[in-house]
Design a protein that fits this description.
The chain is globular. The chain has 505 residues and is of the alpha+beta class. 18% of the residues lie in helices and 23% in strands. Strands 14, 17, 19, 20, 21 and 24 form a 6-stranded antiparallel β-sheet that branches. A 5-stranded antiparallel β-sheet has the order 1-2-3-12-6. Strands 13, 18, 22, 23 and 25 form a 5-stranded antiparallel β-sheet that branches.
Length: 505
């Protein structure tokens, strides 16, 4: 079940908006247009390549100053108001614009100081231009990458479920170049020691021991290309994505950005899975854009509409759960913790190593839960009927795990599995344990799970085969502020593995 639920309605909007924009002037049939899975070069001389998402080609670099200038010259579009730029006194509006951002740029540097609406307008213009020229077909278009597409393009195997907020820094310690810190030579355009010039605030840090040679932006393609041959998927400028950062509809004007910029130096901010969340109308000299071309816009639209329908169904179920939870709240301050080894059943595999020799663990743990379809059950006793939250203490090193939640034989929200994001290790030499709470992807709030008074059987089913170590599982009432200290204080030591029979000589 690989349904991409999150904010499919956004995809519907941009697909329909492009078709509406071009309806009055039907485009010519493409003479040399993009083909699924094949590299292609557009009218601006920008190369596009497949980057892991069917039917979509990624620009190999950010939109350049000369590309954006061509758009402005053709349309008289004004993208100059209220841009924030950097000087020794910090980030302020100074009258700088994308044309003159407060530092030197060449035509091949990425355009900066563009907001989300500017980026969308650029995509509409380029779509209409190339459709009229016969370079794109009626169902082909430019847009910003989705957050999920961007993750795939940078080489992450993220879950298809959840909002960008729920996935922020979900691959701990993973950079476009690997796990080395500071970045290797040529790793990307970040705030190395070269950034500390007369305009760099004295209170701001830089990356110790790293010098990329560019105090501000660099010409696109100046650094190492990583996954799929894409440049600047880390550093140079933040790149706008189509998606809102938050799941809540009231916050949909806050958009997600990916990739970091020349102004970033925090080691944990530069992760490939790192996100920035910015109001759509903000213009800052760290913000730029990258575009994709949708080769089959009809299929793109149909998929988006199907996902929007699935999301709407989830919203309806969420409203029903919230109403029932309000009418019959779970008893306050309920905290029930079970050690992971105290399982009441499993099938489809067998976990191993019920040991206590993991750094930071409370009692016993288990490992090797890494087979698709391997489910494990635990029995929880709660004081009354009601809606509760589910949290696990886990660790994993490489890929995000998904666990489908079933309670008393009934699968809970189909589009809200428990997501186990990467914690950076297996807690062998250091404490990599992290709390993971099941989250509703339409609200970014803990998922409400219906339990009955007395004993309940909770099953977690490995739906994607990615491994995890588990220490304990907790059921709590929604009013409880969950911390590791609280749950660890109530966690039992666990059940050791049965003794192995002695081998006969």
């Amino acid at each position: 079940m690989k349904t991409i639920l999150y904010l499919a309605s956004v995809a519907v909007v941009f697909s329909l908006s492009f078709q509406s924009a071009c309806a009055q002037n039907p485009p010519a049939s493409p003479s040399v247009g993009p083909v699924v899975g094949q590299p292609w070069t557009n009218s601006l001389g920008v190369k596009f390549v497949p980057a892991g998402t069917d039917g979509v080609l990624f620009s190999v670099w950010d939109v350049r100053v000369k590309d954006f200038k061509a758009f402005v010259d053709a349309t008289n579009y004004d993208a100059t108001a209220k841009m924030v730029s950097l000087d020794s006194d910090g980030w302020k509006q100074r009258g700088d614009t994308w044309k003159s951002p407060g530092f030197a740029q060449t035509d091949d540097c990425p355009v900066v100081g563009v907001n989300w609406y500017d980026a969308k307008a650029f995509c509409v213009w380029l779509t209409k231009k190339e459709q009229a020229e016969g370079k794109l077909g009626a169902n082909q278009l430019y847009r910003l990458p989705t957050d999920a597409e961007w993750s795939t393009a940078v080489g992450l195997k993220e879950s298809s479920r959840g909002s960008p907020k729920s996935k922020n820094r979900g691959f701990w310690g993973v950079y476009p170049w690997g796990s080395q810190w500071p970045p290797p030579k040529g790793g990307g355009n970040y705030a190395g020691i070269e950034a500390r010039d007369a305009k760099w605030p004295s209170k701001d840090l830089t990356i110790a021991g790293y010098d990329d040679g560019y105090p501000r932006t660099s010409p696109v393609g100046s650094f190492t290309a990583y996954a799929y041959g894409l440049y600047d998927m880390g550093g140079n400028v933040w790149q706008w994505c189509e998606d809102p950062y938050y799941a809540e509809a009231a916050l949909h004007d806050v958009k997600v950005q990916r990739g970091c910029s020349w102004g970033n130096y925090n080691w944990d901010y530069i992760f490939s899975s790192g996100r920035n969340y910015i109001p759509a109308n903000n213009r800052v000299t760290r913000f730029g854009m990258r575009v994709v071309v949708v080769v089959d816009g009809k299929a793109d639209q149909e998929a988006a509409m199907a996902l929007a329908k699935a999301r709407d169904a989830c919203v309806e179920r969420t409203a029903q759960r919230e109403a029932e939870a309000k009418a019959q709240p779970a008893p306050a301050n309920t905290v029930v913790v079970v050690n992971a080894t105290d399982m009441s059943g499993q099938r489809g595999g067998a976990v191993e190593n019920k040991v206590a020799a993991k750094r930071g663990a409370v009692g016993l743990v288990f490992s090797t839960w890494n087979t698709v379809g391997h489910w494990i059950e635990w029995t929880f006793t709660v004081p009354a009927d009601g809606y509760y939250n589910l949290t696990v203490c886990y660790c994993c090193q490489d890929n995000v795990g998904e666990r489908i939640i079933t309670i008393n034989g009934e699968e809970q929200e189909p589009f809200a599995p428990l997501l186990l994001t990467v914690t950076g290790g297996w807690s062998n030499s250091r404490d990599n344990w992290r709390l993971g709470t099941a989250v509703n992807p339409t609200t970014d709030k803990p998922l409400l799970l219906k339990l009955k008074q007395g004993a309940n059987v909770i099953r977690l089913n490995n739906s994607n085969g990615n491994g995890a170590n588990l220490n304990y599982i907790a059921i709590t009432s929604p009013d409880v502020a969950i911390t590791r200290e609280l749950l660890a204080s109530k966690a039992p030591p666990g059940v050791p593995s049965p003794p192995q029979p002695e081998k006969k000589p």
